[in-house]
Write a structure and sequence with these properties.
The chain is built from 21 helices and seven strands. With 541 residues, the chain is α/β, with parallel strands linked by helices. The protein folds into three domains: 146 residues, Rossmann fold, CATH 3.40.50; 147 residues, Serine Threonine Protein Phosphatase 5, Tetratricopeptide repeat; 181 residues, DNA Cyclobutane Dipyrimidine Photolyase, subunit A, domain 3, CATH 1.10.579.10. The longest helix is centred in the middle third of the chain and has 25 residues.
Length: 541
């Protein structure tokens, strides 16, 4: 019996679960095979949160089932049946089995993965195929097949192609998302006057960020809608058992797993957000509160980054709700800016600035990541709350990441790569193309302001204003010295002291420098000494 010829081996990665993926263009159900690989390394190259691993594996298995329902041949290499150590191992095994004429894939969002797969193909010895020698009826001679290469197709999921972004960025040493965002609004005619016929923005201004920075006040958050519940089905429960077995020592818990693992669930999550949380999303999107896990945030980033949702359908759903229901423009614009502006901008920056972005360390910080980043076991109430929420859900919102766990990393002089790995490990929406520029570039200022005009640093006063985390804390946010001195406050002022010249010369940070200069020499010295004590043992904070 003749073995069927495999024309294309179509590689689908774990964050490429798009039903309309370019990898599936012109696929032939009879001659092509879809390959999906679960690899141990993808949960081990960073110490991946159990919820993050569960979400990826469950979503992959659901997607494979949907492809089979479409009549496609799927070679699914699961951890509990194949146990591939790396994606490359799975690919090489599939090549040996299927002997394809070509390999097709969509460009990965993690350059580490792309390099690993391409290196494996280059190093692979081509199979020996025996054929009859001309004129000799029974004699055979070996012939080496033409070496294979992966054909990467452009990822149509994104609204700005990489070539378009490079053209926009040009050779400028600094990039600003705001100008990119305006261009995207015009290109896609989103929130533009006269239904997109005008070049002027809806409401007469591009950005309503200033309207979206309110704290909750003493009363705290009121009448917060709960997100929808996605009860784990048989596939997800099977994956949860696998993760608890194979990754028992990994951070996090699975008892609160509640993330969409299919496109149908992702669409339901989108509809629920538009109906119940988008109307009040804006005013308190930066605010924090104990026991408030999600607030009015969309919780759509994991579905977008797995490609269960397309960004344009998300943006259009928000804009349609604005027009149909008369929603608050500041809320709608603030949400759309995150998807149409920031998300697309981050992807462009990643591919433009790698590999340098991976090793960037503008301030030369070398401190190790405190152990309590993995446990939440710290006396700092703000860090304890944000980290425990992350361990519970694999999620915290952008201000908790930027202005609490990220900001502390800057002023505590933590090595950027250590904190970047932590972010990649613990969040369900973390894929390197979006995580690395957000963390290294924005939260940690490791690239020296390539696309941010200042480092995001503040004292404990900011945390107190935007949350109730300081209530009952071991530390006092106003204190810069003494046993109750707040690490956020002490290390903030010490950071300003160390980089005073840089802050004086930047119009956006000059006021911070002036406030520093109001401190007399004795106060400065007290801050330096307290900071040195704290930096000497971050694990004890």
């Amino acid at each position: 019996m003749t073995t069927p010829i495999c024309r294309h081996l179509v590689l689908i990665l774990g964050d490429q679960l798009d039903a309309h993926s370019a990898a599936l263009d012109d696929i032939d159900p009879q001659r092509d095979v879809v390959l999906m690989v679960e690899a141990m390394e993808e949960s081990q190259h960073v110490w991946s949160h159990k919820i993050r691993t569960t979400l990826f594996l469950s979503s992959m298995r659901h997607y494979a089932a949907e492809l089979r329902a479409r009549g496609l041949q799927v070679d699914y290499r699961a951890l509990d049946t194949h146990g591939d150590a790396t994606l490359a191992d799975g690919l090489l095994a599939a090549l040996a089995q299927h002997q394809p004429q070509a390999i097709i894939g969509v460009e990965p969002g993690d350059l580490r993965v792309r390099q690993q797969l391409e290196d494996a193909i280059k190093k692979r010895a081509p199979p020996v195929v025996f054929q009859r020698a001309a004129g000799l009826k029974d004699a055979k001679k070996p012939r080496l097949d033409t070496p294979l290469a992966i054909t990467w197709r452009e990822d149509r999921h994104f609204l700005c192609s990489l070539s378009q972004f490079r053209q926009w960025a040009g050779t400028s040493s600094t990039l600003r998302m705001e100008f990119f965002y305006r261009r995207m609004r015009q290109q896609y005619k989103v929130l533009m006057q006269d239904g997109g016929k005008s070049k002027e923005p809806e409401g007469g201004q591009w950005n309503f960020d200033a309207d979206n920075r309110k704290s909750f006040g003493k009363a705290g958050p009121q009448q917060v809608p709960k997100p929808p519940v996605f009860a784990p089905d048989a596939i997800t429960r099977e994956v949860m058992a696998l993760v608890n077995q194979r990754f028992a020592d990994h951070p996090g818990r699975l008892d609160k797993f509640n993330w969409p693992t299919t496109r149908a669930q992702a669409l339901h999550a989108l509809e629920d957000f538009i109906a119940h949380r988008l109307p009040q999303f804006g005013p308190h999107e930066d605010a924090m509160w104990t026991q408030l896990e999600f607030g009015w945030h969309s919780l759509l980033s994991s579905s977008l980054n797995l490609k269960l949702l397309h960004p344009l359908e998300v943006v259009q759903a928000a804009e349609q709700a604005y027009h149909a229901k008369g929603l608050d423009l500041a809320s709608v614009e603030g949400f759309i800016r995150q998807v149409l502006g920031w998300r697309e901008f981050m992807r462009g920056v990643y591919f433009l600035d790698m590999p340098g972005l991976k090793t960037a360390n503008h301030y030369g910080h070398t401190q190790a990541l405190p152990k309590w980043y993995w446990t939440g076991d710290t006396r700092m109430n703000c860090m304890k709350n944000c980290i425990n929420q992350t361990l519970d859900n694999g999620y915290s919102h952008h201000i908790q990441r930027l202005m609490v766990t990220g900001m502390f990393g800057v002023i505590a002089q933590i090595r950027p790569q250590a904190l970047c790995d932590w972010y990649l490990a613990v969040y369900v929406d973390a894929v390197e193309w979006v995580e690395l520029p957000n963390t290294a570039g924005m939260a940690l200022f490791a690239n020296g302001g390539r696309f941010t005009s200042k480092p995001y640093v503040a004292s404990g006063a900011y945390v107190k204003r935007m949350s109730n985390y300081c209530t009952g804390c071991h530390y006092t946010p106003e204190a810069r010295s003494g046993d109750k001195a707040c690490p956020m406050t002490v290390l903030y002022w010490n950071f300003l002291d160390q980089h005073e010249a840089e802050f004086v010369g930047n119009p956006r940070t000059a006021l911070m420098a002036k406030n520093l200069q109001r401190m007399d020499a004795d106060e400065r010295q007290a801050v330096r000494e307290k900071a040195a004590q704290m930096l000497g043992d971050l694990d004890a904070l």
